[in-house]
C-alpha cells in the first residue's frame, strides 16, 4: 500500500497546496490564502522564495484550477521581491487574486514602483504581518488590505498599528493569527473587518496526483518563444509532445484570471488564446516551480501510451477530413484520464472545451468520438472489418508508436 505522499507510479507526482480561510465579521467565508506545502502532513512551509511562490501559482492555476480551490471567493497569494519588481512574471489577470507583500521584503524605490504598477493593472495589494518602523508604511497608500497579527501582541502596540492604518481611507484590516476567543473579541473591538487564524480554521493541505512534465520541454519551449521567428505550429509541436505540459497549458488557459471568452477545442486553441508572451510566462513559472519538486522520473511506457493514442487519433482524423488538432487533443485527454484513473467527465469539468470535444471525451459520440473509440478498440486488440481498414489502422498505429518513441527518446537523450 502506498503512503499518502507516494506517487501512483513514476511519471506521476503528487502535488500539494495549503489553503487557510479568511472570514468577515459575521463569520461568513470571504477568501482563502494559498500557501506552499511540500507534503500532505506539512504544518508549515518547508521552502520559501521564488520557487515556492511559483509552485503555488502553477499548482493553483494549472493543476487544481483556481475555481476548484477558491470558488467565487478572493484568493490571497504571497509574493517575493522577484514578482513584485517584475523579474518574474505574473501570467494571470487580476480577477479575484490579492497579492500579499511579505513582511520580509525590503522596501525600496524599485519595490514601491513595482507594487504601484501591479495596483494600476487592477491587482489588490495586501501587506502581510504589518508592523510600524520597517518602511512598509510607504505602501499603505497603495494597499487595499493590511494583515496584522493579534495573538501575543501587546494591545497598546496593536492599537497603534491600527490607528496608523486608519489614516488611509478604504484600507481593510485583516486580523491574523487569532488563537483564542479573546483575540477575536479584541480584533473586533479594534475595528478589524476580516479575520484569519487557527481559531477560525487551520491551513488545510489539499493534494492531487498529476503527471510530471518534462523540464526539457519547458526549456525548449521557452527557447522557441524567445525567438521572434518561431511560428505557432512550432510552439504547438513542443507542447503537444508532452502530455503533462499540454494539460497544464489547457488548465492555465481555463483559469478564471486568464480572460477566456470562448470555448477551447484544442491545445492549439489554448496557445492562441494565451499568446506567446503569456505562454512564455506560464512555462517559466512551471519550470521554476519544478525546482522544489521531488524529481521523480518519467515512466516512458505510460507516456508513450498517451502520446501514441493522441497521435493515432490525429492520423485517423486526417483520412476522415476532421480537424487534426482537435483529434489529437481528444486522444491526449482520454489517455490522461486513463492514466489518472478518473472518468473523462472529471477532466472535462475543469476545462473549457468545445461541445464536440467534450462529447467525444465523455460519451465518445460524434465524428471525434468515433476516432477515439477506434483508437482505444485497436489498443485492446479489436480489429475492424473489412480487412483493408485493418491494414490501414495497423500502419497508422505503428506510425504513431514510432512518433511517440522518437519524442520520448529525444527528451531523455538531450
UniProtKB/TrEMBL annotation:
PROSITE patterns: EAL, HDOD
InterPro entries membership: dGMP_Pdiesterase_EAL/HD-GYP (IPR014408), EAL_dom (IPR001633), EAL_sf (IPR035919), HDOD (IPR013976), RNase_Y/CdgJ (IPR052340)
HDOD domain mapped to chain residues: 211-397
EAL domain segment(s): 1-217
Mitochondrion found in the keyword field: no
One MF term in the entry's GO annotations: kinase activity
TM stretches of this protein: none
Keywords from the UniProt entry: Kinase, Transferase
Annotated SUPFAM superfamilies: EAL domain-like, HD-domain/PDEase-like
This protein's record includes keyword Kinase: yes
UniProt-recorded name of the protein: Histidine kinase
Native organism: Planobispora takensis
Amino acid at each position: 500500500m502506498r503512503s499518502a505522499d507516494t506517487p501512483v507510479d513514476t511519471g506521476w507526482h503528487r502535488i500539494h497546496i495549503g489553503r487557510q480561510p479568511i472570514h468577515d465579521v459575521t463569520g461568513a467565508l470571504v477568501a482563502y490564502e494559498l500557501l506552499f506545502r511540500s507534503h500532505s502532513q506539512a504544518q508549515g512551509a518547508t521552502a520559501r522564495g521564488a520557487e515556492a511562490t511559483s509552485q503555488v501559482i502553477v499548482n493553483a492555476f494549472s493543476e487544481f484550477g483556481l475555481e476548484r480551490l477558491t470558488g467565487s471567493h478572493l484568493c490571497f497569494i504571497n509574493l517575493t521581491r522577484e514578482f513584485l519588481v517584475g523579474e518574474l512574471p505574473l501570467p494571470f489577470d487580476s480577477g479575484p487574486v490579492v497579492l500579499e507583500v511579505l513582511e520580509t521584503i525590503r522596501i525600496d524605490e524599485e519595490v514601491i514602483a513595482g507594487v504601484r504598477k501591479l495596483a494600476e493593472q487592477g491587482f489588490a495589494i495586501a501587506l502581510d504581518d504589518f508592523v510600524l518602523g520597517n518602511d512598509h508604511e510607504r505602501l499603505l497608500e497603495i494597499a487595499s488590505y493590511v494583515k496584522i497579527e493579534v495573538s501575543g501582541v501587546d494591545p497598546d502596540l496593536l492599537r497603534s498599528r491600527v490607528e496608523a492604518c486608519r489614516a488611509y481611507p478604504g484600507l481593510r484590516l485583516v486580523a491574523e493569527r487569532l488563537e483564542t476567543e479573546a483575540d477575536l473579541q479584541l480584533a473586533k473591538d479594534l475595528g478589524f473587518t476580516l479575520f484569519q487564524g487557527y481559531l477560525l480554521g487551520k491551513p488545510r493541505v489539499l493534494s492531487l496526483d498529476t503527471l510530471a512534465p518534462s523540464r526539457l520541454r519547458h526549456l525548449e519551449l521557452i527557447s522557441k518563444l524567445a525567438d521572434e521567428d518561431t511560428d505557432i505550429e512550432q510552439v504547438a509541436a513542443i507542447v503537444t509532445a508532452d502530455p503533462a505540459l499540454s494539460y497544464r497549458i489547457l488548465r492555465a488557459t481555463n483559469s478564471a484570471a486568464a480572460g477566456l471568452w470562448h470555448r477551447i477545442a484544442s491545445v492549439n486553441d489554448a496557445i492562441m488564446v494565451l499568446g506567446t508572451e503569456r505562454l512564455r510566462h506560464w512555462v517559466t513559472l512551471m519550470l521554476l516551480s519544478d525546482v522544489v519538486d521531488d524529481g521523480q522520473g518519467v515512466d516512458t511506457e505510460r507516456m508513450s501510451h498517451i502520446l501514441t493514442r493522441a497521435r493515432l487519433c490525429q492520423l485517423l482524423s486526417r483520412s476522415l477530413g476532421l480537424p487534426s488538432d482537435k483529434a489529437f487533443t481528444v486522444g491526449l485527454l482520454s489517455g490522461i484520464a486513463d492514466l489518472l484513473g478518473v472518468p473523462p467527465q472529471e477532466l472535462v469539468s475543469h476545462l473549457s472545451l468545445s461541445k464536440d470535444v467534450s462529447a467525444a471525451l465523455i460519451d465518445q459520440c460524434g465524428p471525434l468520438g468515433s476516432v477515439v473509440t477506434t483508437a482505444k478498440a485497436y489498443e485492446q486488440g479489436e480489429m475492424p472489418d473489412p480487412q483493408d481498414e485493418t491494414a490501414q489502422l495497423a500502419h497508422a498505429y505503428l506510425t504513431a508508436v514510432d512518433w511517440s518513441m522518437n519524442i520520448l527518446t529525444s527528451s531523455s537523450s538531450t
